[in-house]
Amino acid sequence: MSEALIQKDYINKAKAYVKEYELLIGHKPSACVTTFGCQMNARDSEKLSGILLETGFDVVEDENADFVIYNTCTVRDNANQRVYGRLGNLHAMKKKNKNKKIALCGCMMQEPSVIEKIKESYSFVDLIFGTHNIFKFAELLCRMFESKGMIIDIWKDTDMIVEDLPVDRKFKFKSGINIMFGCNNFCSYCIVPYVRGRERSRNSIEIISEIKNLVDDGVKEIMLLGQNVNSYGKNLEEDITFAKLLEEVEKIEGLERIRFMTSHPKDLSDELIDVMKKSKKICKHLHLPLQSGSTRILEKMNRRYTKEQYVDLALKIRKEIPDIAITTDIIVGFPGETNEDVDETIDVVKTVKFDNAFTFIYSKRTGTPAAAMENQVDENTVKYNFDRLLAVVQETARESVSKYEGMEMDALVEEINEHDSDYVTGRLSNNTIVHFKGDESLIGNIVKVKLTKCQGFYYLGEQCLKN
Ligand code: 5AD
Ligand code: SF4
Asked: I need a labelling partner for 230 at 20 to 30 A (CA). Which of 31, 199, 323, 466 fits?
Protein backbone atom coordinates (compact mmCIF):
# COMPACT_ATOMS: atom_id res chain seq x y z
CA MET A 1 0.00 0.00 0.00
CA SER A 2 1.32 3.48 -0.82
CA GLU A 3 2.18 5.85 2.01
CA ALA A 4 -0.61 8.22 0.92
CA LEU A 5 -3.16 5.37 1.29
CA ILE A 6 -1.75 4.44 4.69
CA GLN A 7 -2.16 8.04 5.80
CA LYS A 8 -5.72 8.14 4.44
CA ASP A 9 -6.50 5.20 6.73
CA TYR A 10 -5.06 7.15 9.63
CA ILE A 11 -7.25 10.13 8.69
CA ASN A 12 -10.31 7.88 9.08
CA LYS A 13 -9.00 6.56 12.38
CA ALA A 14 -8.29 10.11 13.60
CA LYS A 15 -11.89 11.12 12.79
CA ALA A 16 -13.10 8.78 15.54
CA TYR A 17 -10.62 10.27 18.03
CA VAL A 18 -11.70 13.80 17.13
CA LYS A 19 -15.34 12.79 17.73
CA GLU A 20 -14.37 11.46 21.17
CA TYR A 21 -12.54 14.71 21.86
CA GLU A 22 -15.69 16.61 20.84
CA LEU A 23 -17.75 14.65 23.39
CA LEU A 24 -15.14 15.39 26.06
CA ILE A 25 -15.03 19.16 25.51
CA GLY A 26 -18.70 19.56 24.60
CA HIS A 27 -18.29 21.31 21.24
CA LYS A 28 -16.77 20.78 17.80
CA PRO A 29 -13.02 21.14 18.40
CA SER A 30 -11.20 24.06 16.82
CA ALA A 31 -7.57 24.05 15.65
CA CYS A 32 -5.18 26.87 14.85
CA VAL A 33 -1.97 26.50 12.83
CA THR A 34 0.47 29.37 13.41
CA THR A 35 3.21 29.67 10.80
CA PHE A 36 6.65 31.12 11.45
CA GLY A 37 9.13 31.66 8.62
CA CYS A 38 9.07 31.22 4.87
CA GLN A 39 6.71 30.26 2.01
CA MET A 40 7.72 26.60 2.40
CA ASN A 41 6.41 26.61 5.94
CA ALA A 42 3.25 28.42 4.82
CA ARG A 43 2.65 25.63 2.30
CA ASP A 44 3.32 22.96 4.95
CA SER A 45 0.77 24.67 7.21
CA GLU A 46 -1.84 24.38 4.45
CA LYS A 47 -1.17 20.64 4.43
CA LEU A 48 -1.61 20.46 8.22
CA SER A 49 -4.87 22.44 8.01
CA GLY A 50 -6.10 20.14 5.24
CA ILE A 51 -5.71 17.12 7.50
CA LEU A 52 -7.23 18.94 10.47
CA LEU A 53 -10.34 19.83 8.44
CA GLU A 54 -10.61 16.31 7.08
CA THR A 55 -10.41 14.76 10.54
CA GLY A 56 -13.20 16.98 11.88
CA PHE A 57 -11.64 20.11 13.36
CA ASP A 58 -12.83 23.64 12.64
CA VAL A 59 -9.74 25.50 11.43
CA VAL A 60 -9.54 28.99 12.97
CA GLU A 61 -6.95 31.77 13.28
CA ASP A 62 -7.09 32.17 17.03
CA GLU A 63 -4.75 30.56 19.54
CA ASN A 64 -7.61 30.19 22.03
CA ALA A 65 -8.45 27.16 19.87
CA ASP A 66 -8.67 23.69 21.44
CA PHE A 67 -5.62 22.54 19.48
CA VAL A 68 -2.73 24.86 18.58
CA ILE A 69 0.11 23.87 16.23
CA TYR A 70 3.23 26.00 15.85
CA ASN A 71 4.99 25.41 12.55
CA THR A 72 8.38 26.81 13.48
CA CYS A 73 11.40 28.36 11.74
CA THR A 74 15.01 28.36 12.89
CA VAL A 75 16.82 30.31 10.20
CA ARG A 76 17.64 33.09 12.68
CA ASP A 77 17.64 32.96 16.47
CA ASN A 78 14.91 35.62 16.87
CA ALA A 79 12.44 33.20 15.23
CA ASN A 80 13.29 30.63 17.95
CA GLN A 81 12.95 33.18 20.73
CA ARG A 82 9.50 34.19 19.48
CA VAL A 83 8.36 30.57 19.67
CA TYR A 84 9.60 30.18 23.27
CA GLY A 85 7.93 33.47 24.24
CA ARG A 86 4.60 32.47 22.76
CA LEU A 87 4.75 28.99 24.26
CA GLY A 88 4.60 30.75 27.63
CA ASN A 89 1.23 32.25 26.64
CA LEU A 90 -0.03 28.87 25.46
CA HIS A 91 0.96 27.36 28.79
CA ALA A 92 -1.12 29.95 30.64
CA MET A 93 -4.11 29.08 28.42
CA LYS A 94 -3.62 25.37 28.97
CA LYS A 95 -3.63 25.86 32.75
CA LYS A 96 -7.15 27.26 32.39
CA ASN A 97 -8.23 24.67 29.83
CA LYS A 98 -6.74 21.28 30.71
CA ASN A 99 -8.06 19.68 27.51
CA LYS A 100 -6.17 22.09 25.27
CA LYS A 101 -3.64 20.35 23.02
CA ILE A 102 -0.38 21.81 21.73
CA ALA A 103 1.86 20.57 18.92
CA LEU A 104 5.19 21.85 17.60
CA CYS A 105 6.66 21.05 14.19
CA GLY A 106 8.88 22.57 11.50
CA CYS A 107 12.56 23.42 11.17
CA MET A 108 13.29 24.27 14.80
CA MET A 109 12.27 20.77 15.86
CA GLN A 110 15.06 19.25 13.74
CA GLU A 111 17.61 20.60 16.23
CA PRO A 112 18.36 18.16 19.08
CA SER A 113 19.15 21.02 21.50
CA VAL A 114 15.65 22.44 20.96
CA ILE A 115 14.02 19.10 21.75
CA GLU A 116 16.06 18.84 24.97
CA LYS A 117 14.97 22.33 26.03
CA ILE A 118 11.29 21.62 25.32
CA LYS A 119 11.38 18.33 27.22
CA GLU A 120 12.90 20.14 30.17
CA SER A 121 11.04 23.45 30.29
CA TYR A 122 7.88 23.03 28.19
CA SER A 123 6.66 19.61 29.21
CA PHE A 124 3.02 20.64 28.65
CA VAL A 125 3.50 20.22 24.87
CA ASP A 126 1.58 17.17 23.57
CA LEU A 127 3.16 16.44 20.19
CA ILE A 128 6.45 17.25 18.48
CA PHE A 129 7.42 16.28 14.95
CA GLY A 130 9.85 17.53 12.31
CA THR A 131 10.05 18.56 8.67
CA HIS A 132 10.63 15.09 7.18
CA ASN A 133 7.60 13.29 8.59
CA ILE A 134 4.98 16.04 8.26
CA PHE A 135 3.07 13.77 5.85
CA LYS A 136 2.44 11.48 8.82
CA PHE A 137 0.43 14.14 10.65
CA ALA A 138 -2.78 12.06 10.70
CA GLU A 139 -0.89 9.10 12.18
CA LEU A 140 0.75 11.36 14.76
CA LEU A 141 -2.64 12.83 15.67
CA CYS A 142 -3.85 9.29 16.43
CA ARG A 143 -0.81 8.67 18.62
CA MET A 144 -1.40 11.95 20.44
CA PHE A 145 -4.99 10.99 21.25
CA GLU A 146 -3.96 7.46 22.28
CA SER A 147 -1.30 8.45 24.79
CA LYS A 148 -0.99 10.70 27.82
CA GLY A 149 2.61 11.91 27.66
CA MET A 150 4.49 14.01 25.13
CA ILE A 151 4.89 12.32 21.72
CA ILE A 152 8.16 13.09 19.95
CA ASP A 153 8.83 11.85 16.43
CA ILE A 154 11.74 13.42 14.57
CA TRP A 155 13.44 11.95 11.52
CA LYS A 156 17.02 12.85 10.65
CA ASP A 157 16.39 12.79 6.90
CA THR A 158 14.17 11.25 4.26
CA ASP A 159 14.07 10.61 0.55
CA MET A 160 10.29 10.18 0.60
CA ILE A 161 7.96 12.57 -1.21
CA VAL A 162 4.35 11.79 -0.36
CA GLU A 163 1.77 13.29 -2.72
CA ASP A 164 -2.03 13.54 -2.78
CA LEU A 165 -2.86 14.30 0.84
CA PRO A 166 -5.53 16.89 1.67
CA VAL A 167 -4.56 20.59 1.54
CA ASP A 168 -6.53 23.58 2.83
CA ARG A 169 -5.45 26.59 0.78
CA LYS A 170 -5.39 29.98 2.47
CA PHE A 171 -6.24 31.75 -0.80
CA LYS A 172 -8.65 30.30 -3.36
CA PHE A 173 -6.98 32.05 -6.30
CA LYS A 174 -3.29 31.50 -5.58
CA SER A 175 -1.17 28.69 -4.26
CA GLY A 176 2.38 27.64 -3.54
CA ILE A 177 3.55 24.30 -4.86
CA ASN A 178 6.70 22.45 -3.83
CA ILE A 179 8.87 21.50 -6.76
CA MET A 180 11.79 20.39 -4.63
CA PHE A 181 12.74 19.92 -1.00
CA GLY A 182 15.98 20.49 0.91
CA CYS A 183 19.22 22.19 -0.07
CA ASN A 184 22.73 20.99 -0.93
CA ASN A 185 24.52 24.32 -0.98
CA PHE A 186 25.75 24.54 2.59
CA CYS A 187 26.23 28.29 2.72
CA SER A 188 28.38 28.54 5.84
CA TYR A 189 25.91 30.61 7.92
CA CYS A 190 22.79 28.63 7.02
CA ILE A 191 21.05 25.93 9.01
CA VAL A 192 18.57 24.98 6.26
CA PRO A 193 20.58 22.05 4.80
CA TYR A 194 20.72 20.52 8.30
CA VAL A 195 17.02 20.87 9.07
CA ARG A 196 15.48 20.37 5.62
CA GLY A 197 17.85 17.67 4.39
CA ARG A 198 19.34 16.93 0.98
CA GLU A 199 17.96 18.35 -2.24
CA ARG A 200 15.17 16.27 -3.82
CA SER A 201 13.17 17.31 -6.88
CA ARG A 202 9.64 16.15 -7.58
CA ASN A 203 8.83 14.54 -10.94
CA SER A 204 7.64 17.09 -13.47
CA ILE A 205 4.59 14.97 -14.30
CA GLU A 206 3.42 15.10 -10.68
CA ILE A 207 4.03 18.85 -10.52
CA ILE A 208 2.14 19.58 -13.74
CA SER A 209 -0.76 17.39 -12.69
CA GLU A 210 -0.99 19.10 -9.29
CA ILE A 211 -1.00 22.53 -10.94
CA LYS A 212 -3.72 21.47 -13.39
CA ASN A 213 -5.87 20.37 -10.47
CA LEU A 214 -5.24 23.66 -8.70
CA VAL A 215 -6.23 25.62 -11.82
CA ASP A 216 -9.43 23.56 -12.11
CA ASP A 217 -10.09 24.56 -8.53
CA GLY A 218 -9.82 28.31 -9.26
CA VAL A 219 -6.11 29.05 -8.91
CA LYS A 220 -4.81 31.81 -11.21
CA GLU A 221 -1.35 32.32 -9.76
CA ILE A 222 1.11 29.69 -8.61
CA MET A 223 4.43 30.02 -6.83
CA LEU A 224 6.92 27.21 -7.50
CA LEU A 225 8.75 26.62 -4.24
CA GLY A 226 12.24 25.34 -3.52
CA GLN A 227 15.32 26.48 -1.57
CA ASN A 228 17.23 26.61 -4.82
CA VAL A 229 14.83 26.29 -7.76
CA ASN A 230 17.58 26.86 -10.33
CA SER A 231 19.02 23.44 -9.62
CA TYR A 232 15.62 21.75 -10.10
CA GLY A 233 15.88 18.36 -11.79
CA LYS A 234 19.52 17.63 -11.04
CA ASN A 235 18.77 14.45 -9.08
CA LEU A 236 15.99 13.23 -11.38
CA GLU A 237 16.27 10.54 -14.00
CA GLU A 238 14.25 12.57 -16.49
CA ASP A 239 16.16 15.09 -18.59
CA ILE A 240 14.74 18.34 -17.24
CA THR A 241 15.92 21.76 -16.08
CA PHE A 242 14.07 24.47 -14.19
CA ALA A 243 13.69 26.47 -17.42
CA LYS A 244 12.13 23.45 -19.17
CA LEU A 245 9.76 22.90 -16.26
CA LEU A 246 8.65 26.54 -16.55
CA GLU A 247 7.92 26.03 -20.25
CA GLU A 248 5.70 23.07 -19.39
CA VAL A 249 3.90 25.03 -16.66
CA GLU A 250 3.35 27.91 -19.09
CA LYS A 251 1.30 25.60 -21.34
CA ILE A 252 -1.32 24.95 -18.66
CA GLU A 253 -4.54 26.49 -19.86
CA GLY A 254 -6.33 28.79 -17.42
CA LEU A 255 -3.20 29.47 -15.37
CA GLU A 256 -2.44 33.19 -15.55
CA ARG A 257 0.61 33.90 -13.43
CA ILE A 258 3.74 31.95 -12.50
CA ARG A 259 6.12 32.93 -9.72
CA PHE A 260 9.04 31.08 -8.18
CA MET A 261 11.25 31.25 -5.11
CA THR A 262 14.24 31.13 -4.41
CA SER A 263 16.97 31.49 -7.02
CA HIS A 264 20.64 30.98 -6.28
CA PRO A 265 22.77 33.31 -8.43
CA LYS A 266 25.38 30.62 -9.11
CA ASP A 267 22.82 28.37 -10.87
CA LEU A 268 20.79 30.95 -12.79
CA SER A 269 21.11 29.99 -16.45
CA ASP A 270 20.83 31.99 -19.69
CA GLU A 271 18.20 29.42 -20.65
CA LEU A 272 16.09 30.64 -17.73
CA ILE A 273 16.49 34.31 -18.67
CA ASP A 274 15.43 33.43 -22.20
CA VAL A 275 12.35 31.53 -21.03
CA MET A 276 11.38 34.40 -18.71
CA LYS A 277 11.83 36.91 -21.48
CA LYS A 278 9.52 35.05 -23.87
CA SER A 279 6.93 34.02 -21.32
CA LYS A 280 3.49 35.61 -21.08
CA LYS A 281 2.79 34.15 -17.66
CA ILE A 282 6.01 34.29 -15.65
CA CYS A 283 5.82 37.33 -13.40
CA LYS A 284 8.29 40.19 -13.80
CA HIS A 285 9.99 39.49 -10.52
CA LEU A 286 13.16 37.74 -9.51
CA HIS A 287 14.26 37.21 -5.93
CA LEU A 288 18.02 36.83 -6.15
CA PRO A 289 19.71 36.69 -2.73
CA LEU A 290 23.00 38.62 -2.70
CA GLN A 291 23.89 38.01 1.00
CA SER A 292 27.03 40.19 0.70
CA GLY A 293 28.64 42.41 -1.90
CA SER A 294 32.16 41.63 -0.74
CA THR A 295 33.91 38.84 -2.67
CA ARG A 296 36.03 38.11 0.40
CA ILE A 297 32.93 37.55 2.56
CA LEU A 298 31.07 35.70 -0.21
CA GLU A 299 33.91 33.21 -0.30
CA LYS A 300 33.72 32.66 3.46
CA MET A 301 29.95 32.28 3.09
CA ASN A 302 30.56 29.54 0.48
CA ARG A 303 28.27 31.30 -1.98
CA ARG A 304 30.39 30.39 -5.01
CA TYR A 305 30.13 33.71 -6.89
CA THR A 306 32.02 37.01 -6.73
CA LYS A 307 30.72 40.55 -6.42
CA GLU A 308 31.42 41.09 -10.12
CA GLN A 309 29.66 37.89 -11.19
CA TYR A 310 26.55 38.89 -9.22
CA VAL A 311 26.48 42.43 -10.61
CA ASP A 312 27.02 41.20 -14.19
CA LEU A 313 24.18 38.70 -13.80
CA ALA A 314 21.76 41.24 -12.31
CA LEU A 315 22.57 43.83 -14.98
CA LYS A 316 22.22 41.23 -17.73
CA ILE A 317 18.76 40.35 -16.41
CA ARG A 318 17.78 44.03 -16.22
CA LYS A 319 18.96 44.53 -19.81
CA GLU A 320 17.14 41.47 -21.18
CA ILE A 321 13.93 42.04 -19.20
CA PRO A 322 13.79 45.81 -18.59
CA ASP A 323 10.54 45.90 -16.58
CA ILE A 324 11.62 43.18 -14.13
CA ALA A 325 11.81 43.82 -10.39
CA ILE A 326 14.83 42.34 -8.63
CA THR A 327 14.67 41.79 -4.88
CA THR A 328 17.30 40.34 -2.60
CA ASP A 329 18.38 39.17 0.86
CA ILE A 330 21.44 40.65 2.58
CA ILE A 331 23.15 39.59 5.79
CA VAL A 332 25.02 42.15 7.90
CA GLY A 333 27.58 41.13 10.51
CA PHE A 334 28.89 37.84 9.11
CA PRO A 335 32.08 36.86 11.03
CA GLY A 336 35.03 39.01 10.00
CA GLU A 337 32.93 41.54 8.08
CA THR A 338 34.51 45.01 8.11
CA ASN A 339 33.07 48.43 7.28
CA GLU A 340 34.87 48.17 3.93
CA ASP A 341 33.05 44.90 3.17
CA VAL A 342 29.74 46.64 3.85
CA ASP A 343 30.84 49.49 1.54
CA GLU A 344 31.09 46.83 -1.18
CA THR A 345 27.57 45.60 -0.39
CA ILE A 346 26.25 49.17 -0.54
CA ASP A 347 28.00 49.58 -3.88
CA VAL A 348 26.10 46.57 -5.27
CA VAL A 349 22.80 47.92 -3.91
CA LYS A 350 23.45 51.25 -5.65
CA THR A 351 24.44 49.56 -8.92
CA VAL A 352 21.65 46.99 -9.13
CA LYS A 353 19.03 49.29 -7.53
CA PHE A 354 17.04 46.49 -5.92
CA ASP A 355 13.26 46.95 -5.84
CA ASN A 356 13.37 45.65 -2.32
CA ALA A 357 16.01 44.08 -0.10
CA PHE A 358 15.41 42.08 3.05
CA THR A 359 18.28 42.92 5.37
CA PHE A 360 19.11 40.56 8.22
CA ILE A 361 21.52 40.76 11.09
CA TYR A 362 23.77 37.69 11.07
CA SER A 363 22.57 35.11 13.55
CA LYS A 364 24.94 32.44 14.82
CA ARG A 365 23.44 28.99 14.18
CA THR A 366 24.95 26.16 16.18
CA GLY A 367 26.42 23.44 13.97
CA THR A 368 27.07 25.66 10.94
CA PRO A 369 30.70 26.36 9.90
CA ALA A 370 30.29 30.13 10.44
CA ALA A 371 29.37 29.62 14.11
CA ALA A 372 32.91 28.35 14.72
CA MET A 373 34.61 31.21 12.86
CA GLU A 374 36.68 33.77 14.69
CA ASN A 375 36.03 37.53 14.58
CA GLN A 376 32.31 37.51 15.30
CA VAL A 377 31.38 41.17 14.73
CA ASP A 378 30.50 43.34 17.74
CA GLU A 379 26.96 44.64 18.16
CA ASN A 380 27.74 48.33 17.65
CA THR A 381 29.52 47.75 14.35
CA VAL A 382 26.64 45.57 13.16
CA LYS A 383 24.09 48.23 14.09
CA TYR A 384 26.08 51.01 12.43
CA ASN A 385 26.42 49.00 9.20
CA PHE A 386 22.85 47.73 9.26
CA ASP A 387 21.48 51.27 9.55
CA ARG A 388 23.55 52.73 6.76
CA LEU A 389 22.78 49.79 4.46
CA LEU A 390 19.05 50.10 5.16
CA ALA A 391 19.10 53.83 4.33
CA VAL A 392 20.59 53.08 0.89
CA VAL A 393 18.19 50.18 0.30
CA GLN A 394 15.21 52.45 1.01
CA GLU A 395 16.52 55.15 -1.30
CA THR A 396 17.24 52.84 -4.26
CA ALA A 397 14.04 50.84 -3.76
CA ARG A 398 11.95 54.00 -3.93
CA GLU A 399 13.79 55.01 -7.09
CA SER A 400 13.20 51.59 -8.74
CA VAL A 401 9.63 51.11 -7.58
CA SER A 402 8.49 54.66 -8.46
CA LYS A 403 9.49 54.24 -12.13
CA TYR A 404 5.97 53.10 -12.88
CA GLU A 405 4.09 56.02 -11.28
CA GLY A 406 1.22 57.13 -13.52
CA MET A 407 1.16 53.88 -15.52
CA GLU A 408 -1.64 51.33 -15.77
CA MET A 409 -0.85 47.76 -14.76
CA ASP A 410 -2.66 44.51 -13.99
CA ALA A 411 -3.11 43.66 -10.32
CA LEU A 412 -4.37 40.39 -8.85
CA VAL A 413 -6.66 41.47 -6.00
CA GLU A 414 -5.74 39.48 -2.88
CA GLU A 415 -7.71 40.88 0.02
CA ILE A 416 -9.63 43.74 1.62
CA ASN A 417 -7.14 46.33 2.84
CA GLU A 418 -6.15 45.66 6.44
CA HIS A 419 -6.52 49.29 7.54
CA ASP A 420 -9.43 50.60 5.44
CA SER A 421 -12.26 48.29 4.37
CA ASP A 422 -13.19 50.59 1.44
CA TYR A 423 -9.90 49.58 -0.15
CA VAL A 424 -8.53 46.34 -1.57
CA THR A 425 -4.91 45.19 -1.86
CA GLY A 426 -3.59 43.82 -5.13
CA ARG A 427 -0.26 42.53 -6.36
CA LEU A 428 1.36 43.60 -9.63
CA SER A 429 3.25 41.16 -11.79
CA ASN A 430 6.48 42.69 -10.44
CA ASN A 431 5.33 41.79 -6.92
CA THR A 432 4.70 45.40 -5.84
CA ILE A 433 1.60 45.90 -3.74
CA VAL A 434 -1.07 48.44 -4.75
CA HIS A 435 -3.97 49.65 -2.59
CA PHE A 436 -7.07 51.03 -4.32
CA LYS A 437 -10.80 51.57 -3.77
CA GLY A 438 -12.79 48.39 -4.25
CA ASP A 439 -14.83 45.71 -2.55
CA GLU A 440 -14.86 42.00 -1.86
CA SER A 441 -16.26 41.14 -5.30
CA LEU A 442 -12.84 41.97 -6.79
CA ILE A 443 -10.91 39.41 -4.72
CA GLY A 444 -9.27 36.82 -6.96
CA ASN A 445 -9.67 38.94 -10.12
CA ILE A 446 -6.95 40.50 -12.21
CA VAL A 447 -7.88 44.14 -12.84
CA LYS A 448 -6.22 47.15 -14.47
CA VAL A 449 -5.06 49.74 -11.98
CA LYS A 450 -3.58 53.19 -12.50
CA LEU A 451 -0.59 53.59 -10.18
CA THR A 452 -1.26 57.09 -8.91
CA LYS A 453 1.25 57.47 -6.08
CA CYS A 454 4.38 55.56 -5.06
CA GLN A 455 4.74 55.33 -1.29
CA GLY A 456 8.22 53.78 -1.15
CA PHE A 457 7.77 50.02 -1.39
CA TYR A 458 4.07 50.14 -2.45
CA TYR A 459 1.56 52.14 -4.52
CA LEU A 460 -1.76 53.85 -4.06
CA GLY A 461 -3.87 53.46 -7.20
CA GLU A 462 -7.27 53.64 -8.89
CA GLN A 463 -9.02 50.88 -10.75
CA CYS A 464 -9.35 51.68 -14.48
CA LEU A 465 -12.99 51.11 -15.25
CA LYS A 466 -13.98 50.01 -18.76
CA ASN A 467 -16.33 52.37 -20.66
N1 5AD B 1 21.72 34.80 9.93
C2 5AD B 1 21.07 35.80 9.29
N3 5AD B 1 20.36 35.63 8.18
C4 5AD B 1 20.30 34.40 7.65
N5 5AD B 1 19.69 33.92 6.56
C6 5AD B 1 19.93 32.60 6.48
N7 5AD B 1 20.70 32.20 7.51
C8 5AD B 1 20.95 33.31 8.25
C9 5AD B 1 21.70 33.55 9.44
N10 5AD B 1 22.36 32.58 10.06
C11 5AD B 1 18.94 34.76 5.63
C12 5AD B 1 19.55 34.71 4.23
C13 5AD B 1 18.52 33.94 3.45
C14 5AD B 1 17.25 34.30 4.17
C15 5AD B 1 16.11 33.40 3.92
O16 5AD B 1 17.62 34.29 5.53
O17 5AD B 1 19.64 36.03 3.77
O18 5AD B 1 18.51 34.28 2.09
FE1 SF4 C 1 20.64 28.28 3.08
FE2 SF4 C 1 22.34 28.77 1.06
FE3 SF4 C 1 20.59 26.68 0.90
FE4 SF4 C 1 19.67 29.22 0.76
S5 SF4 C 1 21.06 28.24 -0.71
S6 SF4 C 1 18.80 27.53 1.99
S7 SF4 C 1 21.06 30.32 2.14
S8 SF4 C 1 22.28 26.91 2.36
From this structure: 323
